[in-house]
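To fix ideas, we now present one chain and its tokenised fold:
***
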Amino acid sequence: MERCPCCNARLAGAQFCPRCQADLGSVLGSEQFARHCLSKALQCWLADDRQLTNLALAKSIFLKQTPLALVFRDFIIRQQCENVLGLLEKKKYPEAKESLSLMRDLHPDDKFLTQLYRFTKYLLVKDIIKFSSCKPSESSMSSNPDSLPSSGISNC
């Protein structure tokens, strides 16, 4: 921190402001913890642990929005969007929804992520409805096991 958040005086790395005597220990501690969380996010990314990467990065950005953390967040989102699109292509909607949920924790105001999340939920619900309508009902199967029900599997 270069300036006191209370009086805007220049700081020389001291825990107390030379002008207003404000105790800056907590603020300096949170900045240090934000750097630690960003470092942890980078380590988790290298270990290919997306969930812990997102959690550590979100905590770092919450504590202090450094340019490095914001660029890393945008990189992670761009990278994971490609994975989500691949999951949608393979019709793995629950996994795509879970990934998008984690990404939205990183950047809740991102309009693209919000739209993609809503579209994924739509595809998931549509798939559930299609699956449930394709299932033959037990009552129609028990009455005549040799014939298909009128709603039929052929409609799927």
About this structure: Residues 111-134 form the longest helix (24 residues).
